[in-house]
């Protein structure tokens, strides 16, 4: 492929990943606030650590995809189903850790 | 059940997906990816909403508060799982040149959200009375 895609599809997709990491950050901040409402006991801290781990996992997936889309050589590679599954998996992990920190 | 198993296998073995049909125009794949991300953001918003219910309605009794929060968290987790399966099914349909899969999920999800929202209105109003 020569030159830029007139529809800027890779750029739009990259920005969609950015928006999604922002949404994940908001959800994790709310989760941490939820976990720490009754003080920072060991269970609350463990819940926070797990939520943060899920957040980092999600950011890692997003980072891999964003770097892949940012490379300007050749045709953009479609998203591998495995990467999509791991992004959704971290989201589900966040929901699970979150349901454990509710009280 | 067999369809579910076949879909999960497709998630984990991308080579299988690449074996089927022809590679579509990369723009269609990227559009499919953005739809997947929009569903993932919906899931994250539902999960965030679950935490918000837990924190911003502290005067509610434990039962309705945690019940509503768990319902939203569960809806978020289901949306996330479904977003991958829909992404993979759309990708496969495009490779095979078939019609894109239809789905009842958006209608079901909006019904669930409407029910949760109504329940929240009722619960908050009832909570103010006591």
TrEMBL record, chain A:
Principal location listed in the UniProt entry: membrane
Locations listed in the record: Endomembrane system
Keywords linked to the UniProt accession: Membrane, Transmembrane, Transmembrane helix
Membrane topology classification: Multi-pass membrane protein
Residue span(s) of domain DUF202: 5-68
Keyword presence, Iron-sulfur: no
Pfam families linked: DUF202 (PF02656)
InterPro entries documented for this protein: DUF202
UniProt KW Membrane keyword: yes
Parts of the chain that traverse the membrane: 43-62, 83-102
Protein name, entry field: DUF202 domain-containing protein
Organism name: Streptomyces physcomitrii
Origin organism lineage: Bacteria, Bacillati, Actinomycetota, Actinomycetes, Kitasatosporales
TrEMBL record, chain B:
UniProt keyword list: Cell membrane, Membrane, Transmembrane, Transmembrane helix
Transmembrane parts of this sequence: 36-53, 65-84, 105-128
Membrane topology: Multi-pass membrane protein
Source species: Streptomyces physcomitrii
Protein name, per record: DUF202 domain-containing protein
Compartments reported by the entry: Cell membrane
Domain DUF202: 27-92
Chief localisation class: membrane
Record flagged with keyword Transmembrane helix: yes
Keyword Membrane attributed: yes
InterPro entries: DUF202, IM_YidH-like
Domain of life: Bacteria
One Pfam family named in its UniProt record: DUF202
């Amino acid at each position: 492929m020569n030159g830029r895609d007139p529809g800027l599809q890779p750029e739009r997709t990259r920005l969609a990943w950015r928006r999604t990491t922002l949404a994940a950050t908001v959800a994790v901040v709310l989760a941490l606030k939820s976990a720490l409402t009754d003080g920072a006991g060991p269970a609350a801290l463990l819940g926070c650590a797990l939520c943060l781990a899920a957040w980092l996992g999600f950011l890692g997936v997003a980072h891999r995809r964003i770097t892949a889309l940012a490379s300007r050589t050749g045709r953009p590679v479609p998203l591998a189903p495995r990467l999509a599954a791991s992004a959704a998996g971290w989201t589900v992990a966040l929901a699970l850790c979150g349901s454990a920190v509710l009280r | 059940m067999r369809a579910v198993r076949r879909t999960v296998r497709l998630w984990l073995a991308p080579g299988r997906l690449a074996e089927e049909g022809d590679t579509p125009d990369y723009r269609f794949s990227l559009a499919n990816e953005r739809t997947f991300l929009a569903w993932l953001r919906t899931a994250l918003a539902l999960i965030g909403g679950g935490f918000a219910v837990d924190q911003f309605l502290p005067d509610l009794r434990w039962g309705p508060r945690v019940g509503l929060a768990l319902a939203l968290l569960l809806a978020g987790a289901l949306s996330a799982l479904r977003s991958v399966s829909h992404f993979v099914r759309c990708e496969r349909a495009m490779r095979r040149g078939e019609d894109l899969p239809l789905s009842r999920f958006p209608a079901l999800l909006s019904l669930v959200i409407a029910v949760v929202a109504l329940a929240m209105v009722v619960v908050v109003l009832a909570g103010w009375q006591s």
